[in-house]
Task: structure prediction
Amino acid sequence: MGRVDGKTAIVTGAASGIGAGAAAALAEQGAPVLLTDINDAAGQAVADQINSDGGKAIFHHQDVAEEESWLAVVETAENAFGPLKIMVNNAGIAIGGSIVEFSLEDWRRQNAVNLDGVFLGTRAAVRTMRDTGGGSIINISSVAGLQGAPGLTGYCASKGGVRLFTKAAAVECGRAGYKVRVNSIHPGIIETAIWHGDITQLRDSDDDLARRSMGFRDGANQIDLDAMAERIAPLGVKGVPRDIAEGVVYLASDESRYVTGTELVIDGGVMA
Ligand SMILES: NC(=O)c1ccc[n+]([C@@H]2O[C@H](COP(=O)([O-])OP(=O)(O)OC[C@H]3O[C@@H](n4cnc5c(N)ncnc54)[C@H](O)[C@@H]3O)[C@@H](O)[C@H]2O)c1
Result:
């Protein structure tokens, strides 16, 4: 018997990295999973892999920031697998840039995915879960939602928002008697594609402090994750998506039935 046997799950941003790892781990533990992402080819490939490994998965295209997308996503999951029990709001982007150079457009683009997306996903999940016996909502924040970092003001703001939004939703759902638990996970340095995307915008920055803090050394234009992990994580190494997926399975399962509004930090000791 799996730890989340038969519990219908949705994982956003599941085409890659932590979302793909979380979807696979939930499926291994018996949850049928609807994966969503803007990257259709990669998302379908992750779903195909889960199915060929013996799990149950379908992929559905979604931009989490689009309010209209949510009705169809929840409906598709519930029509295929039954009432929604697990919602993992994982889709996220990281845009680097010093505060003096950061554009309002990037600030809004980042908040639309990281914060609006989490709000919309949580709202959609609560709306159905409160009528169908409850469930578990897991919002992926970051250590950057707990502590500031130069070169990441916009990202920190969005992830800090996810942290407190999650707590407020947990308190409200608990008090209302919905049987819906809401928790956040705060990953540290995890090897995924996010470190090679818009975050590297900072490489062109004039702000040397922010560049060095983010791991750009001596004119290099790649972030050195191993060096950064060695510097800031007491365990000395970076993590992998599976490290976060294990936390997702715990918070999704009944093992965490008395856990709500908490912030699960999985970071090799960075925040310690
Ligand atoms: N990797 C880390 O070190 C780390 C650390 C802390 C927090 N996180 C958080 O973990 C989550 C997953 O990131 P990851 O590291 O796996 O990165 P990733 O880039 O590998 O995966 C992110 C996924 O989200 C998808 N996505 C982006 N915008 C979307 C949108 N509008 N709608 C739907 N999907 C969208 C991408 O296509 C991608 O598949 C993010 O919220 C990120 O902020 C990551």
Remarks:
- Strands lie at 8-12, 33-37, 57-61, 84-89, 135-140, 180-187, 263-266.
- Residues 12-13, 15-19, 37-39, 62-65, 90-94, 113, 140, 142, 187, 189-190, 192-194 surround nicotinamide-adenine-dinucleotide (CB under 6 Å).
